[in-house]
């Protein structure tokens, strides 16, 4: 068995070696690829844990994809200007230029800025003098001789001069974003959409966005747009829509990090540049959430657990952030608000240190937010809304309307919805103790539901 294991390892090694030879041969025919990686983490007032790790991961990935990579850490404003100027001026004609930034970012008065590590937020008026304007980077890349320019920002775009908020994301304070005007032949990818926050990667070595992006970049045959769409779908699902990646593109030709076999690649000639002149960018506006429409039955318990955790210690001062997310089609935020208004917000603990004191319950607001999520097709909200209507909580009791919401929820893979709808259809009220007959009926329902979920 040991011989077979060693022989298998030898075969595997040869296979990877052949892949490496093939990629090296392919890379020889690619346009020159150059990347600048900037990582700011050692902020005086708001340090970040993962930009250094993210920079190293991105650098390793880009080198595997044929990029010549330069990497710099913890830059002040002058260093940001100098590094980006030097990089853009050295881009060869027809090359691919890529800049990756991990760190803090803000938006003030309609403009986006990258935050130097030594910047002290003293007021909005000082930001243009203390921060690095994103437009400066875009303008320099536009003036370069490169054919395609890619800017990747794993940073939130926030304004640190407004009331602060507590969270685990890459921000100083509240949310904000200005749309960026980009020239032709340019892609700008953001780790978070307008009005959202980018997670720093609490409990992980890398931010979720950078980790997911590097995985997609290594997939053969994906255009950059396809890779970024995949990243958005994965990040949205894993963060339950708290973070929604976004990108803008004005590319005319297709660009691949790892081209499929047989694809004619861009040449080194400047004449192939898709960047001459300027054009309005094609904005990749956020589409409504869809990750939950095909969620397998076995994954719903984790979603329920997340909702319970979010609701358990939710206080009223966190409502504005949740409402902001809810207004951006975040069904988890809508449902969390619905539960919180129904059960009340955390206000402290009793004398024994265990009992939770709640207040601020409002059944009318609970029904409103659950209805918003239910209309978006979220089955947990549909189920809860249906039960509230059947029981006359926050609204007049209406069996027809309540059962309609339960039925709609049962069409999903959410097991609880299938079970409760079947119970209600069989005349069993899930909210009251079951009789012996009801227990037998429920057991049969559970068996039927389990069978359907296996089909």
How would you describe this protein?
The protein is an alpha/beta fold and 455 residues long. The protein has two domains: 31-283, Rossmann fold (3-Layer(aba) Sandwich), CATH 3.40.50; 293-454, Serine Threonine Protein Phosphatase 5, Tetratricopeptide repeat (Alpha Horseshoe). 43% of the residues lie in helices and 14% in strands. The protein has helices at residues 2-27, 51-64, 77-89, 127-130, 134-143, 208-217, 224-238, 300-312, 319-327, 331-343, 363-375, 379-391, 399-410, 415-425, 436-454; strands spanning 33-39, 67-73, 96-102, 105-108, 111-114, 132-133, 148-154, 158-159, 174-175, 186-190, 246-249, 282-283, 345-349, 356-359. Helix 2 (51-64) packs parallel to helix 6.
Topology overview:
Elements: H1 2-27, E1 33-39, H2 51-64, E2 67-73, H3 77-89, E3 96-102, E4 105-108, E5 111-114, H4 127-130, E6 132-133, H5 134-143, E7 148-154, E8 158-159, E9 174-175, E10 186-190, H6 208-217, H7 224-238, E11 246-249, E12 282-283, H8 300-312, H9 319-327, H10 331-343, E13 345-349, E14 356-359, H11 363-375, H12 379-391, H13 399-410, H14 415-425, H15 436-454
Parallel strand pairs: 1-2, 1-3, 3-7, 7-10
Antiparallel strand pairs: 4-5, 5-6, 8-9, 10-11, 11-12, 13-14
Helix pairs in contact: 2-6, 3-5, 6-7, 8-10, 9-10, 10-11, 11-12, 12-13, 13-14, 14-15
Brief digest:
43% of the residues lie in helices and 14% in strands.
At the third CATH level, what is the topology name of the largest domain?
Rossmann fold
Strands of the widest sheet, in order across it, are 2-1-3-7-10-11-12
Average pLDDT, to the nearest integer?
A: 81
Name of the CATH architecture of the largest domain: 3-Layer(aba) Sandwich
Principal-axes geometry comes out as: elongated
Contiguous uncertain segments of 5+ residues: 1-28, 164-177, 267-283
Family: Belongs to the peptidase C14A family.
Protein name: Caspase family p20 domain-containing protein
Pfam families: Peptidase_C14, Sel1
GO molecular function: cysteine-type endopeptidase activity
